[in-house]
Design a protein that fits this description.
There is one protein chain. The protein is globular. A 5-stranded mixed sheet has the order 1-2-3-7-4. A two-stranded antiparallel ribbon has the order 5-6. It has 19 helices and 11 strands. By secondary structure, it is α+β, with helices and mostly antiparallel strands. Helix 13 runs parallel beside helix 18.
Length: 521
């Protein structure tokens, strides 16, 4: 059993059988800069020490990073820990995050180097792990050109509306398979926008390929899964060397990643050569251009970043998780559902489904979509930013190489920002003094803000509006007992509600008729 924990410049006592040490000490700092506040440092040390005593299986910093809501509020706006020589800062305040990551974005926009997933498998070429530099800026320009604003997204509104209508039809046919329908629809929208590709109803090869590649991404970047991430020099050992089986695995996963990048890209080129390519992210970037090798690399990998990142973003799916959370909220809060439906009925009537031209006329539906993003946070912790150069922020010395992680979950549940933060209450975004728009937080900060935020926002809104117009969602009755779903999101980079059951039925005969109409491009 580990002894008492101190916050002095020494590691926690090592527990028998564990090869991990954690230091709660601070880095040396320039003269005149203030240390981290002692009581906050002490609180974090005590929290880590408690987990440490639970044994090496549980003692991982990833436990805390997987459950951001477990970080005690008394840790303050900036929390620090050092793990195996790596400084990690967790930001628990949105204003501090904006001061550091937005206003000092040139210094806070790099990414950590991941030897297995990033270097050996090759995910360092996608936007999420791409080092900050010229290539990164070119990727962002491509995103901005095609989906970088609400106005740019107007081109893709018909795609969103048609595929969401098809989602309603799938839910009508098999309501018990809600989760699968949400995933399929997200893939259909993203592939249509990114590559002009129409997905197959079952076992689509491009969706299956992306799912396989991103599953491998999750495994290749899992904390502590591969020794090479702790000893980067192992990258250079030959494949036949004893214990180097990770290199064989990396080579296999690299092939999957290359296929995910190349096959959809070649599909677009073939369609363009035949003169039948619909407008898409890739076709817009290729049209009328002769590309150099570097330019083609940027188009291939930036389109793959959109395709893989939006379809299955970092161990999960942003849009999928948000829309699944919508149905959980509608199940648990029937009064909210009725208010939103009453607004739709008053503004649109019952003769058609909502579309994007109605958005400005449906303020309660807009507020409900915002509350979905805030209440069940899709990305509890943002992907770490890596500090490119030494910095002193508000008296705190932050050395080059420090990982800075915004605690998105806490920011969106901070009682200083949101009244009664655990309550699902769309009204908080209405009236003369609306609370902070969660979209200014949940998509990240600075130059690493999610480049597909307008696409994700549009997908969530049209799903909210159409689903409310078409269906009544309620708790199911099993054996004469009403079943209340549990609010318990999964841990991880992307958070999903636990699987739950609910009743999904057309609101009326007219709603059934609208759902069954055949949407066409």
């Amino acid at each position: 059993m580990a002894g008492p924990v101190s916050c002095r410049r020494q590691p926690l006592p090592r527990q028998t059988g564990s090869d991990q040490e954690v230091t709660c000490a601070l880095p040396s700092r320039p003269q005149g800069s203030s240390p981290y506040r002692k009581h906050r440092r002490h609180a974090l040390c005590q929290t880590l020490a408690h987990l440490y005593r639970m044994g090496p299986e549980i003692w991982q910093v990833t436990y805390i990073l997987s459950y951001p809501s477990a970080l005690p509020s008394f840790l303050g706006d900036i929390s620090h820990v050092e793990v195996l020589g790596q400084h990690i800062i967790i930001l628990n305040n949105v204003n501090v995050a904006m001061e550091m990551l937005d206003k000092k974005s040139s210094s806070y926009s790099d990414r950590p180097v991941l030897p297995m997933g990033g270097e050996l498998v090759g995910w360092k070429n996608t936007l999420v792990l791409l080092p900050y530099g010229d290539r990164f800026r070119e990727y962002r320009k491509n995103f901005a050109r095609v989906i970088g604003s609400r106005a740019a997204m107007d081109t893709y509104h018909p795609t969103e509306e048609i595929e969401t209508h098809r989602f309603l039809q799938r839910v009508l046919a098999k309501p018990a398979e809600l989760s699968q329908h949400v995933r399929h629809t997200a893939g259909a929208i993203i592939l249509r926008i990114s590559h002009g590709y129409k997905v197959k109803e079952h076992q689509d090869p491009f969706i299956d390929l992306a799912d396989r590649a991103v599953d491998q991404f999750s495994m290749s970047t899992a904390t502590g899964a591969f020794m090479v991430d702790m000893i980067p020099s192992l990258t250079y050992v030959p494949d036949w060397f004893p214990g180097a089986s990770f290199k064989t695995k990396a080579n296999e996963w690299r092939v999957t990643l290359e296929e995910m990048v190349q096959k959809p890209y070649q599909f677009v080129k073939d369609q363009m050569a035949a003169g039948i390519a619909p407008e898409s992210f890739v076709s817009n970037l290729l049209e009328g251009r002769t590309l150099s090798a570097e330019e083609e690399h940027i188009v291939r990998w930036s389109s793959a970043s959109l395709y893989s990142g939006m379809l299955a973003s970092l161990r999960g799916r942003r849009t999928v998780s948000a829309i699944y959370s919508l149905f959980l909220a509608l199940t648990l809060f029937p009064d909210v559902q009725k208010k939103a439906q009453a607004e739709i009925d008053a503004v649109i009537g019952s003769d058609r489904l909502p579309n994007f031209t109605d958005r400005d006329s449906l303020p309660y539906v807009e507020a409900l979509a915002k509350e979905v993003l805030r209440w069940n946070v899709v990305v509890p912790l943002a992907v770490p930013h890596r500090v490119a150069e030494d910095d002193v922020h508000d008296g705190y010395y932050i050395p080059k190489g420090t990982l800075v992680i915004p605690n998105i979950w806490f920011m969106l549940h901070d009682p200083r920002t949101y009244s009664e933060p655990n309550e699902f209450r769309p009204e908080r975004f209405l009236g003369k003094a609306p609370e902070t728009d969660p979209r200014s937080i949940c998509f990240g900060f600075g130059r690493r803000i999610c480049p597909g935020l307008h696409l994700a926002d549009a997908s969530v809104w049209i799903s909210v509006a159409m689903s409310l117009a078409a269906f009544d969602v309620s708790k199911i009755i099993e054996n004469g007992v009403e079943v209340t779903p549990e609010i318990d999101p999964s841990s991880g980079t992307i958070s999903h509600p636990k699987p739950f059951k609910c009743s999904i039925k057309p609101r009326s005969a007219k709603a059934l008729e609208l759902i069954q109409q055949d949407p066409v491009y």
